[in-house]
Amino acid sequence: MMRFSTLMKHPADWMTGGSTDNSIVLTSRIRLARNLAHHPFPGWAKKNQRRRVMELLQPTVEALPAMKDGFSKELSDLDSMHKQVMVERHLISREHAARGEGSAAVIERRQSVAIMINEEDHLRMQSIRPGLDLGEAFSSLSALDDQLADEVEYAFDGKLGYLTTCPTNLGTGMRASAMLHLPALVLSDQIGQVLQAVNKIGLAVRGIFGEGSESLGHLFQISNQSTLGESEEAILERLGRVIAQVEKNERYAREKLMEDDPDMVRDKIGRAYGLLRHAWLISSKEALEYVSMLRLGADLGCFEDDTVRICDELLMDIQPAHLQLHSGRKLSPEERDAIRAEIVRSRLQSLDAPDTGKIEDQNNGENPPPDLGLA
């Protein structure tokens, strides 16, 4: 199996975007919750019962064709820094990182599929794809789920569907979500209106690390709330439609900002470039905000094509645990701010100043504002 250092050496496939348009919708993620029949669920299981489930599931998951040459580890064999790095890479949840003996993670070598064993449920499986591609993320994970179902017996009820620890996951056991970069909606003070409309139709909006986390770097995660009484296809169709509408809202907000206040847009992008290129101390929150503005500038054509990929890698690499992994030791907050600034300066040293002449009125008035009802 793959070593942790090898896993961390390469960015995940979904982080680099490839040929996919990920200017606004960065990633699509599908997560399935499953439990084994005839075994107590993790929250009620004793330590030896949890270990028995892990010893059954870990080799079974490792043997799946998709997980060949992947990474597999008991969480008790990883220190807190390594676990936090995996949280920052969205490979395991914060709740899973807090668990110890009897829990494990198995991760596909390209980091597109990750399986948590004994998190809140016996199995939490996720698939991540770049851009708006919920269908592909679901089909690849569904195939893997079918393979596992041939090897183990799931806890399933004819009326309720898949049985889960939390009642909100009953039924399909599926959470579908997308991570969106929405700086123009934030700058134009429309974000509240859009997110309120999303909430009204039964979808959840969360921050960069999911439930209970704040939005940083103008990144928002939109996901389904209900999993019972609706098919996977219906959930994906509705969510995809809403995400596509929010994407249109963001595009229109960008056009409107460039029409109404191009100097403000130039100033935000120029300041972000100057501070990131020359700062010697920078906090995580501040860095994420400026990287977000740099990414917006790249999307508007102010920087060379490769800048979006650099920004996406920085969004991950300047997180606290990644900095400590880079340094090989535990860092104080002040040391993190200095090393974060050093890494950012290094990555951006060959980036030319923004061509803000590209920021002009791109809205010819033909496009009406998108419907914020999102229905």
Automatic annotation (TrEMBL):
Annotated ranges, domain Phosphagen kinase C-terminal: 24-253
Residues holding ATP: 27-31, 90, 124, 175-179, 206-211
E.C. no: 2.7.14.1
Enzyme class: transferase
Motif RDXXRA motif of the pArg binding pocket involved in allosteric regulation in this chain: 336-341
Reactions performed catalytically: L-arginyl-[protein] + ATP = N(omega)-phospho-L-arginyl-[protein] + ADP + H(+)
Membrane-crossing segments per the record: none
Molecular function GO labels: kinase activity
Cited InterPro entries: Arg_Kinase (IPR023660), ATP-guanido_PTrfase (IPR000749), ATP-guanido_PTrfase_AS (IPR022415), ATP-guanido_PTrfase_cat (IPR022414), Gln_synth/guanido_kin_cat_dom (IPR014746)
Gene3D superfamilies membership: Glutamine synthetase/guanido kinase, catalytic domain (3.30.590.10)
UniProt keywords, alphabetically: Allosteric enzyme, ATP-binding, Kinase, Nucleotide-binding, Transferase
Domain of life from the UniProt record: Bacteria
Regulation of catalytic or functional activity: Appears to be allosterically activated by the binding of pArg-containing polypeptides to the pArg-binding pocket localized in the C-terminal domain of McsB.
Region of interest called Disordered, as start-end residue ranges on this chain: 345-375
Recorded family membership: Belongs to the ATP:guanido phosphotransferase family.
HAMAP family xrefs: Prot_Arg_kinase (MF_00602)
NCBIfam families, A to Z: PRK01059.1-4 (NF002194)
UniProt function note: Catalyzes the specific phosphorylation of arginine residues in proteins.
Protein name: Protein-arginine kinase
Organism: Haloferula sargassicola
